[in-house]
Structure formats: C-alpha cells, structure tokens
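Reviewer comment 2.1 asked that we show a complete input and output for one of the modelled complexes. We chose the manganese (II) ion case, as it is the one discussed in the main text.
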Amino acid sequence: MRKSAVPPEVLKARRRQLGALIPGCALVLPAWPEQYRNADMHYNYRPESNLYYLTGYDEPECCLVFRPGKTPETVMFVREKNVERETWDGFRFGVDGAKQVFGYDAVYPYSQFTKVAPELLRGCERIYYSMFRNREFDVLFGEAVMGISGWRPRYGMGLPPIEDANSVVGELRMRKDETEIEMMRKAALISAEAHIEMMKATKPGITERYLHGVFLKEIMERGATTEAYGGIVATGNNATTLHYRFNESTLESGQVLLSDCGAEYQWYSGDITRCWPVNGRFSTAHKRVYEKVLQLQKELIGMVKPGLPHMDLQKRAVEGSVEILLDEKILTGTVEENIKAAAHAPFYPHGVSHLLGLDTHDSGVLMVQGKSRPLEAGWALTIEPGLYFPANNSKVPDELKGLGIRIEDDILVTPEGNENMTRAVPKDAGEVEALVGANYK
Ligand code: GLY
Ligand code: MN
Ligand code: MN
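Response of the prediction step:
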C-alpha cells in the first residue's frame, strides 16, 4: 500500500484551521482533469494544490466535500479499486484504502458524487467552489447544487451562494506549517545543488538544452519528481526574453548565461535564477552590472521580515533599478522622473517577488482594499530583481547588448527576519567564476 506523504494529523490540523474560517459553510474541491493525448496516451498527473493541501490525496478523479462541525465532516469521493485499470496504470487506494491511510470521516466512490453530495450540502450557508478548473466536474457540481435547490425555495432561501474556494484555502496556504517548510527547504536545496552542477558543466560549444538536462538529472537524482515549471536556460541575448523556453542555442564564449530553473519536491517548488559567464570570466562591463544587481538583491533580502508591506520590495526594486540605469548612463534625469515615466520598464519589466509553495506562483492575496499586506512569519517568497539589455535596443551601449541578469532566491519569513532557503548556490561573482567549467579543469 502507498502511504500519505503528509501525516494525516497534519492534514487534519489544516482542515481544522479552514473550518474556523468558514463555519456553517461547505467546501467542494475536485481534482484536476487528467491529461491525455490521442485518447490513451496519458501524462504524469499533478494533484490540484488546494485539494492536496487539505487531503494529501494525489490520485485523479477525486473530490473533497468538507463541512466543518458536521458529521461526517471530511468526505472524500475517490476512484474505486479496479483490477484491470490497476494492471495498466498502477495502484489505486480505493474507498477502503483512502479511509484507512488518510483517516477521512467518510469515503464514497467518485461515481456517486451527484447522488450523495446534495444531502451533504443541504443546509450549508455558503459553498466554496472554484469554477472552470475542472469543467467536466463543474457539470457534476451544478447537478449536486440543483439537487438541493428543490427544497430551499419553499423556505424562501433559493440556492446557497457560491464563493471562490481559492480565497479561503489560499489564505491558509500563505502561512507554511512545519511539514511544508521541511519540504520547501528540500525543494530549494535540490534546486540549488543542481545549479552548482550546471555551473560546473558549462563551457562554450554545449547547448542550453544540454545544461537543462544536467539540471533535470541532478534534481531527479536528489528525489524531485520533476521540475516546478518549464526551465529557462538562456544564453546571451536569449536571457533578455523573460520566459525564454526554446533552450536550443549553443553557448558562446563572451556570453552570460541565465538559468531560471526549479525542482518540484513533494509537489513544492524551488525557483532559482543565477547568471554566469560561459567562459568562466565576466567581462568588465558584465561584471559591473552583475554586481550592482546582486547588491540590490542582497539589500532586498535584507528587508524581508515580518511587518514589511510586500509592495515595499517592489518599490525599492524599481528605485534601485533606476539608480543602476542612471549610473550606467542608459537613463538620464532624476530617479523620481524616471519612475514616474516608467522609463525603467524596457529594462526591468517584472515583479520582484511572488509567493512560493505548492505552486511556483503560490496562492494568496497580497493586496487588500488597495493596501499591500505586511509580510508574516511562515510566508515563503522569492526575491528576484533583474535588468535586461536587448541587443536591438538603441539605448543600450554595445558592451551591454545581449545581456540579461536576474538573481533569484527563495526566502522564508521567520519571526526574527528571514531564512534564505537557496543560499547553498553561490552568487558572488568570484565564487561563480570559480565554479564555471570545473568539470573540465
Ligand atoms: N520562474 C518563474 C518565476 O521566477 O517567477
Ligand atoms: Mn520566481
Ligand atoms: Mn524563477
């Protein structure tokens, strides 16, 4: 029998916290639909993050109905055991296994959802459900809700209101518990160690794809299931495309390579960006800009502590980027004028930080009524300033044309300040240079 990667009592504690946020209500969370091509060629399944967070269940075709304070409280609908399908696709927990391993209060076959769910949802004040994530299930959900509507109009109440489940589960997912922090540290460490191996394997003449392969090999050897997102391995001017994904160019001496790759470990994301010179030595101009971005990144990490409005990171990143662009004489005028005119945007067009967790761009609302929320201990976020100098931009001096620099670490907010979970991969220019090509020395 397979096991739950997350202890059932931890899952129960998460549901208890959720229950306190939605008393009298119900939450319905279905799995993602499975991915097929040509009808029968299927691809690795990835659980839906909110559902996994609350149930630990990683099979497709399942659904949670959670009714805080009621009996049964945690009800799961799961795929049944099926000897033939298990011969083709492998183990299934089935109804009994799900109950035994995960300790849910009641478990039904998935096929019985529309029959059983109306009774479970009857009398709840509100239903939390996210539309359009699993369109086939949206129809089943609609049927279940209509199943309770028959009696409600007689009391003049109509259908219960439906609200986005992500708003409440996302709120919980912002504060990582100890189990999550352990998994995130591992995802971060694996991603960091794999970056070191990429640096060591770099030399002119190899391809971006080869280095991406080094990353995949190294993370999977260390227990990752796969990468957290399509890895970006971009040399020279390719690095000025933020989400460059072709990974098909050959590395040339004199270029700087940017790698933005992350491992997925127990469904948790690492998300690291590092830049290094293909031939092991930054040019004077490349090094000058690299070190300015690095200094800004370190300053931003230093700001991370409970109470800091998240938007302050972005404000400082924009200001710091403009200062560098002025220093490099790519912009003229004052810092304020340039910020007002968004003159930095062609060179720094993205946000400096996002939440990180089960999803690389993790759930959670960072602005409430137009105000940026202050950071809290237990949040995990990235810090990733960057500057990009496309070869075809006439404002860019020749010595910087075709350079993209982004430096990204994964930061846990702690009661005292922060912990850099990706600190294992060097970023000081000299240390990076010493690693590049080490496999061939
Ligand atoms: N790798 C995606 C990001 O940094 O947001
Ligand atoms: Mn990121
Ligand atoms: Mn990234």
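Residues 178-200 form the longest helix (23 residues). We note this here for comparison with the apo prediction described in Section 3.2.
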